[in-house]
Specification:
single chain; 426 residues; 2 domains; seven-stranded parallel β-sheet; 13 strands; 34% helix
């Protein structure tokens, strides 16, 4: 796609990292997908871990010491408001400090600015106002609920974001005029004065936005994350090194960037698997689970009686795809998910997803047709779904095609290009 000058459309994708975390991974994939469609897409990040190449250009912003200073400056008020308690330190963000992205040449040269996950020192609310002053259309892809709340990334069961926040459960003191309410006021002022088109990555996330006091009247589109579906095989690779000492078992798989992040529900998954071990020994004797992702407290697996193989943090994408291709089911026990990528990746490799329905899972799974949605957020319900999946003989190629029709890189990139074109034509 070309811009008004006849040159390739220039898009600057802003995200905290290029490879670290779910939002970073899908933003990087979006950059790849857009470039494959002829868009000059580039990433500007706080933390660059991969290489900056002409084919996949990624730039960090400013010197490392200044980025660290902005990070600390944004975190300290949260730390103080919580009485020096670290428990909820990274469940909230204020965007009170950030880097001067409006000065970055890629931002200034871009036709479209596409914000993604911008917290923890990358971009402040004031910085967004300065980017808007450049006169370029702004798209904001929401990977969690932060845009629609005062300060939290996931509201869980708290309804305060539907009003004006305050009495935030992630802060001590239970005061109406707390940090969450004051940040809500700053966002409200910014959003009222700044034209932004929001993208929700799932129907569930747009539904939450429609309830939000900040975004209920905003322009919110639904475009899912892009996945390289064609790279996920539906059967194990030939001549691939064995990673499981019990290859005769059926496998299920569960993973995350940080597996024991409380929102991922690993404790519920462990309880569900132990229920199967205790009550369905015929299933447990014939099945093992592959677990991957960072674990800060390995002790949580000490009470898992179900046969398992823990692979740690996996950076080898071929190995990750092998996990899915050699498994029957992929499970998620998350308390909330915007659009769980492991379920899409597993489905692309022919696995049946087993999950709860408290998020974007319903955009991925049709219950009992191409996966299982547990009716309650309990170990018993998850165990029932796992047993169902293990009793099926899925059509792995049909599952792959189904995901390709909804989440392929080409389809998602085309949806973004259509959105960019409509904004530039205004």
């Amino acid at each position: 796609m070309n811009n008004a000058t006849g040159h390739p459309l220039k898009v600057a994708l802003v995200c905290h990292s290029d490879t670290l975390g779910g939002a970073a991974v899908v933003t990087y994939r979006l950059m790849q997908a857009l470039r494959a469609e002829g868009v000059d897409a580039r990433m500007v990040v706080y933390n660059r871990l991969g290489d900056n190449t002409p084919d996949l250009p990624v730039s960090d912003i400013g010197p490392r010491w200044l980025r660290g200073l902005k990070f600390v400056k944004e975190r300290i008020p949260i730390f103080l408001h919580n009485g020096f308690n670290r428990e909820n330190l990274f469940k909230v963000s204020t965007a009170s400090a950030g880097m001067p992205l409006h000065r970055h040449p890629w931002i200034r040269q871009a036709d479209i600015i596409n914000l993604n996950w911008i917290n923890q020192g990358l971009l402040s609310l004031g910085g967004i106002r300065k980017i808007a002053a450049l006169g370029k259309p702004i798209v904001w892809t929401m990977h969690d609920m932060w845009c629609m709340t005062g300060i939290c990334h996931h509201a869980y069961e708290c309804p305060n974001y539907q009003q004006q926040c305050g009495c935030c459960p992630f802060l001590t003191g239970n005061r109406q005029n707390d940090l969450s309410h004051r940040t809500w006021q700053r966002k409200d002022k910014l959003f009222a004065r700044t034209p932004i088109t929001y993208v929700a990555v799932s129907s569930w996330l747009r539904e939450q936005a429609s309830k939000s006091s900040l975004l209920r009247d905003a322009d919110v589109r639904i475009i899912p994350n892009a996945f390289p579906i064609e790279t996920f095989p539906t059967r194990p690779y030939d001549n691939f090194p064995s990673f499981d000492p019990t290859p005769q078992r059926r496998r299920i798989v569960m993973g995350a960037a940080r597996l024991d992040d409380p929102i991922k529900g690993l404790d519920i998954a462990v309880d569900a698997l132990n229920l199967i071990f205790d009550n369905n020994p015929d299933v447990a004797n014939d099945t093992s689970i592959i677990l991957f992702g960072e674990l800060r407290n390995r002790a949580i697996l000490d009470r898992l009686r179900f046969p398992y193989l823990y692979m740690g943090r996996v950076t080898d994408q071929k190995l990750l795809r092998q996990f899915y291709a050699s498994s029957v089911a992929v499970i998620s026990a998350s308390h909330f998910e915007t659009l769980p990528g492991t379920l899409i990746e597993g489905q692309a490799a022919g696995c049946l997803p087993v999950t709860f329905g408290n998020g974007g899972q319903r955009d991925i799974v049709t219950h009992l047709r191409d996966g299982y949605i547990a009716e309650s957020h309990t170990p018993e319900a998850l165990a029932k779904g796992i047993i169902w999946a293990l009793s099926q003989t899925p059509d792995r190629e049909a599952l792959h095609r189904s995901v390709d029709e909804r989440f392929s890189s080409h389809k998602v990139a085309s949806a973004y290009i259509d959105l960019y074109r409509s904004l530039l034509d205004k």
